[in-house]
Amino acid sequence: MPPRTVYLETFGCQMNELDSELVAGRLRQLGYRFTAEAGEADVVLYNTCSVRERAEQKVWSRLGEIKKRKADEPSLVVGVLGCMAERDGEAMIDRMPVVDVLCGPGELDKLPELIDNAVRTRASLASDGSGRRARRSARQVALQGSASRRSGTLAAAGDTLELLDLSRTISPVDEGRSRSAYVRITRGCNKFCTYCVVPNTRGAEMHRPPENILDECKRLADSGVIEITLLGQTVNHYRFEHGASVSVGGVVQPQKGRTYKGAHHRDALSAAGVTTFADLLRRIHDEIPAIRRLRFVTSYPRDFGDDVLEVIRDSPRICRYLHVPAQSGSNRVLKAMNRGYTVEAYFEFLDRARAILDQPELGRPLMISGDVIVGFPTETDADFEATIDMVRRSRAKNQFIFKYSPRPGSLAFDKIPDDVPESVKRQRNNALLAVQGEISDEISREQIGREFDILVEGLSRAEKKRRGVDIKPGSGMVGITVGGAPASAKPETDIAEAAGLAQFSGRTDGDQIVFFDVDTTIQAPDDLIGSIVRVRIDNADKLALQGTLI
Ligand code: SAH
Ligand code: SF4
Ligand code: F3S
């Protein structure tokens, strides 16, 4: 096969960013090259998100654009990966016949084979000019469908996806890779919040064997990574029973998640050969000191035992940052969302977390962030007032606020009509943003005068703009392109241009953004990026802190 050039664009959450990195690594091993320019690629892949309608709209518009190009280039291969592929299924091909490859997030280990088949058939179709019907049969599809929620043991035994994580290729940091990395600890979700598609797109909750996780973290640390973020939809629900392990081809397989009552009997559990989330954190922290920062997302409010909070308190390299979405402040709405906790239980958790972890006097304030949905069906003004109260009382450093978006396939979609008008959703969204803005501003200002360890990320955006450095979309819920460098590429500082006084940005271990100036004639930017420096905060607003190197 002649070398193929791939363009891979990622939408959605960190889980998708990691999937893209793993897939890109596999494809590179097989001889594919990557480009940051879609126009140069003969394989165009979109790793997609279904969480809100807007996320899907972006992909539909990309597909609309590529349709025009494919009319002139019939050998072009177009693939849709990820949650939208899984949610829409083959209906997607009916709507957009331009799609050749469809691969759900639970089937990504099969992607190289699918692409290879598609490339071969495309090439032959292009050369003999066969008609539309032949093209349709050439489609390459791998979806989990209803199999994603098979019985636990079967699912565990058949979880070849573990091999994808295990085959992760880790290039050394000095080859342009970022010093931060994601590591998956659980897949899927069993919570079935009524607004959410994730349990359908990502399948049943599975917990990876701790040895595999530790091994991956060690390999990342050996390659120069100093910050690891553990990923899971309800990451603090992690639990692995060693006696119950299933091995396939010598590989210990992930286990199906189960509901359990907190981790109150920690010692008894450990004796029985169980690795709890607290155990896992402690092991990564203690066994891999080269990891200077360990964080994890997303936490579920109900599953936090004191054992986890105490491990965080006692482990200096675990970040004092918890992303724990409450979603609403109204117990009636929380119930309709099937969140499984009350707002009182959420506050009880926050109080407990702050009592154990908030130590501003040691330069280690606890930072909380959350997610809120406004305009969930039936949400009244009184429910919304309760959400405002919840946001005020939570004092999170930031809240991600979303307008409810009805998702086909979620439980609420069929059962509860989307009855809050768009204009009301917008008003509530703006009102909440204003309230949170004040809180973020206050919390930022409280940091003035304090000193923090900052992990330096690169030139600030403003500095890049001043220097005319090309700014690519950032991480988070925006599109990310996998170009020549591995997925989480180093911030593209134009180092040669950065001589003189330059503004850099970095983060505290509480995930607050900090800007500070560096005299680059004294300190080489290359040595600074990815290092941890000490900064005193002189100024602040709701978005960021400003400080001075000390
Ligand atoms: N597992 C995580 C969240 C995953 S989705 C958790 O439970 O916290 C990320 C966020 O998107 C959710 O926290 C929720 O606030 C938002 N979200 C999910 N489905 C949504 C929908 N249908 N409409 C609007 N926001 C939604
Ligand atoms: Fe979705 Fe709820 Fe699972 Fe989060 S916990 S992924 S919101 S179903
Ligand atoms: Fe989106 Fe799937 Fe993540 S729906 S938020 S990409 S788990």
Oligomer: single chain
Secondary structure class reads: alpha/beta
Indicate the CATH architecture of the largest domain.
2-Layer Sandwich
Stretches where pLDDT falls below 50 for ≥5 residues?
473-494
Which percent band covers the strand fraction? Answer: 15-25%
- Give the overall shape: globular
First-last Cα distance: 55 Å
User: What does the main sheet amount to?
Assistant: 7 strands, mixed
Number of strands: 25
Helix content: 25-40%
Number of helices: 20
CATH topology of the largest domain: Transcription Regulator spoIIAA
Number of domains: 4
Ions, cofactors and other ligands present here are: S-adenosyl-L-homocysteine, iron/sulfur cluster, FE3-S4 cluster
Write down the overall mean pLDDT.
Answer: 88
Rounded to the nearest angstrom, the radius of gyration is: 24 Å
- The first-level CATH class name of the largest domain: Alpha Beta
Q: How is this fold's topology laid out?
A:
Layout: E1 5-10, H1 14-29, E2 33-34, E3 43-48, H2 53-72, E4 77-82, H3 83-88, H4 91-95, E5 101-103, H5 111-128, H6 132-137, E6 140-142, H7 152-157, H8 161-166, E7 180-184, E8 186-187, H9 198-202, E9 206-207, H10 210-222, E10 227-231, E11 239-241, E12 247-248, E13 251-252, E14 255-256, H11 266-271, E15 274-276, H12 277-287, E16 293-297, H13 306-314, E17 321-323, H14 331-336, H15 343-357, E18 367-374, H16 381-394, E19 398-403, H17 411-415, H18 422-446, E20 451-459, H19 461-467, E21 480-482, E22 501-507, E23 513-519, H20 525-528, E24 532-540, E25 545-549
Helix pairs in contact: 12-13, 13-15, 16-18
Residues 189, 191-193, 196, 198-199, 233-234 line the site of iron/sulfur cluster (SF4).
